[in-house]
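Tutorial sheet, problem 5. The two components below are modelled jointly, 607 residues in total.
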Amino acid sequence: MARNDYTIKSSKGEKAFDYVLLVLCLFLIVITVYPFLNVLAISLNDSMDTMRNVNFIIPRKFTLSNYTYIFKENDLGAAFTMSVVKTVVGTVIGVICTAMLAYVLSRKDFYFKKPFTILFIITMYVSGGLLPEYLLLTRTLNLGNNFWVYIIPGLIWVYNVILMRSFIEGLPIALQEAAKLDGANDFTIWLKVILPLCTPTIATVALFLAVGQWNSFMDTYLYARELPTLQYVLYQIMEQATIQIDPHQTSQLANAVSPMSVRMAITIVATVPILVVYPFLQKYFVGGMTLGAVKD
Amino acid sequence: MKKKKKETAVKEKFSLNLMWRQRYLLLMSVPFVIWLIIFKYVPLWGWTMAFQEVKPGTFALPVWERRFVGFDNFVKAFTDRLFPQTMVNTIAISILGIAIGTISSILFALILNELCFTKFKKLTQTVSYLPHFVSWVIIASIAKMLFNDGGAIDTMLNTKLHLMSTNSWVFWVVVCLINVWKEMGWDAIIYLSAMAGIDQGLYEAAKVDGANRFQRIWHVTLPCIKPTIIVLLIMSIGSALNVGMERQMLLSNSVVQDHAMVLSWFAYVRGIGNNNYGLGTAIGVFQSVVGVILLFIANKVAGLIGEDKLV
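Model answer (structure tokens):
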């Protein structure tokens, strides 16, 4: 895979080109990372001091008051809990359902394997669109502002089912047959034989679902504004031009924080969980992505 | 051929006995099929609303009791005062997005592929995926901090660029560039894996023939990943009208709204904002139908110019 093995005899110009590429990559790294560092620094900086100039990546006047402010004033605790609960519940239920369906659709002897697979795959290409879905969820099923509107409509992603199914199809069939001879039923085979072997794809699918749930914003915006998540709170704060400060409470004015600092602090709170799981993401996502690309 | 025969051999005829033996498999899949029908196929049935007058009061009526209006909703959508500008925005943003996005991720993949410092290559890749996993709300929050009037970029350069407050094509470019910043690294993965599959012997042969590095990229790497590029292009042309509402809504503000409005957002404004369900559905149907037509045209054109077709 390494390209340097074919540089049998390269000219000086080509050597110099290597360094041009290096500099280009450095530039790309800087423009990718700088905005995040900038946001982090602003969120940790005194908000009056930030007003002077916003271009810095090391806090000039370190303070945690922006964070204490957002958790006290914006009811961020509730939104944070909502985001976490939604992510955990959505991921756990989603993974179980995906794995179950993927196993059934991998069984060559299952009578409905083909029609069911086709039914699922069609939905990858045609969808009803915004309005019919909105009306179904809010009017017909009356799920508006119900917690389950976060979980049930997006329960299964067909892409994930296909990903997992191709993994299961790659497992040796002898394992299932042996379990069957021992008198195991199909559910037991799935639970005891297939699931333990599927850990890598389960990780991939779980991460896809978790990142999707954590980052989703339109579901709250369209269906459940009374159950705000972190993303939605951040959106609301972006929409507000200013934060009202009660003039009678001068003590509040003294440690007031600017809207900019508040926004940046919430941005960091909403980003950090992604950064924490990022090292795992890296490994499994890229594997999952190329697997899907090769198989289909 | 052989494989197919094997599969049919396994398949048994339908019988109650077979159903009973596969009861666990049925129990483990039928609930999801019911879920699928409710959440994916019922909305498709909702397309009938595009040809009816449906307002909040008449929504509860069964389909046959609502008033059929033929193509009235479509005519209303096309003659809407917002429609011409919305259409121009949608097409411009997606063409610009496809062009800049494809070129930049191919270039990025080429850079990584040519880079001979392996450790550094890994680092660059890791960093480049990061923005892909961050939500649009967060990206918008950061972008507004950087590009708003008097924001970080303005103070850094000590000018007023008005990147986020010019109600013109400038906003299209800004949106597309932010999208490139977010997705370039991720989109490059597929090109990189295509490049990894290229036979090293081709490079050796080119080298023996005296090709320099650029000539090797131009005559070996690019032709070898051309099928991948074509397939991805066909697919993105098929979804050219599906410019997401989320990104547009989050990055725009009231000043630039004229140039940020896209079809899906327009469907939301008319359908849910103005409570005209029939009109909103009609816009969505238009979007899907044109998408399918575009997909077929792109596929046909690829076939005509002698490239691999998608289907």
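Marking note: Residues 77-304 of chain B form a domain with the MetI-like fold fold (CATH 1.10.3720.10). Full credit if you identified this.
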